Amino acid sequence: MATAQSAGYDLLQTGSGASIDLSSMGLGQVPLQGVPIQGSTGSTDTIMHRTQDVPSGGGTVPVELYALSMKSQNSVTFQGQQADVYVTVNNSGGTISTSTLPQPDALSPSTGTVTVRPDGTFDSSITINAQIIFTTAGGNPANSANVIGHQAASPITLSSTNSSWSASAPSGYPSSSTYPSGGFYPRPVHVGPHPVVPSTCNTSPSPSPSPTPRVGSGVKAAAAPTGKATLNNGITFQTECISNVNFTN
C-alpha cells in the first residue's frame, strides 16, 4: 500500500453507544448522538486534521480535533427544567462559523499523533478538550436565550493500536474540496469515550448554535472522537456508523 499520504482531514460520524457521564450532577450516563456539522460534509459530526504529510515509508505525524458536534439523545432535567446537552469543539479558526458550531469557552487545543505504517495499519493518541452546553429542551444553541449553562469538559486521552486505514475512500464518503483526505481513510478503534466511523453523504438538518454568555453550571465531563471506552465523568463514543461505519472515542 502506498504510504506517501498527504496532510488532510478525516470526516467521521459518531456510531451508536456514545454517551457522557454526568453522574456527578445526578444525571447518570447520558446517551449522545452526532449532529451533522454542515450540509457539504454529509453526516460528518467529527473532523480530524492531520497537519503534516506522512513520510515516505510511514511515520508519525501530528493530528488535531478540528470539529466535534454532539447532542443528548433525549432531554435531561437540569437546574429544575428540561434541557438538552451539547458537546462541541470548534477549532476551525473561523472556517466553521460559531453560529453553526458554538464553543462559548476558550479551550486548550485537542492534539495528538498518528503513526502510519505501509501495511495498512496505524496507531494514534489524542487528548480531547471539549465544550459542554446545556440548552432549554428543543432550544437552538445559536440563541443565547436558550442557553442554561456551559463549561469546558475535563480532558481525556484517546488511543488506538493497529487500527486500519485505506488509500481509497469508503462507499458514500463525502467529497469535499475544503477538507481533502490526503489519501488517508482511517477506521479508528480507540480506547476512550467516543465511537466513530467514516461519514456518508446522507445528512439531516443540523442546528445552528452560537456563542453564549457563560453560566456557572458545575459541569465536568470529557469529550472526544475515536475509539470505544467509558471514563468517569467523561464522554463515551462508539464507532459504527457511516454507510455502516461507526467511530468510538
Explain what the structure shows.
This protein has 249 residues and is mostly beta strands. It has one domain (8-238). The protein is 0% helix and 41% strand. The chain has strands at residues 8-22, 28-34, 46-50, 59-72, 76-78, 81-90, 111-116, 121-128, 131-136, 147-152, 156-166, 185-187, 190-191, 196-198, 235-238. The chain has a 15-stranded antiparallel sheet that branches. A hairpin with an 8-residue loop joins strand 3 and strand 4 (59-72).
Helix fraction by DSSP (H/I, runs of at least 4): under 10%
CA distance, first residue to last residue: 27 Å
* Helix-strand topology string: EEEEEEEEEEEEEEE
Alpha-beta content class:
mainly beta
What's the structural domain tally? 1
With helices defined by DSSP (H or I, 4 residues minimum), what is the helix count? 0
Biggest sheet: strands, sense, closure? 15 strands, antiparallel
Estimate the global geometry from the Cα principal axes: elongated
Give the number of DSSP strands: 15
**Rg (CA only):** 17 Å
- Mean pLDDT score, rounded? 79
> Which stretches are poorly predicted, pLDDT < 50 over at least 5 residues?
203-234, 237-249
- Sheet-strand content, in percent, reads 35-45%
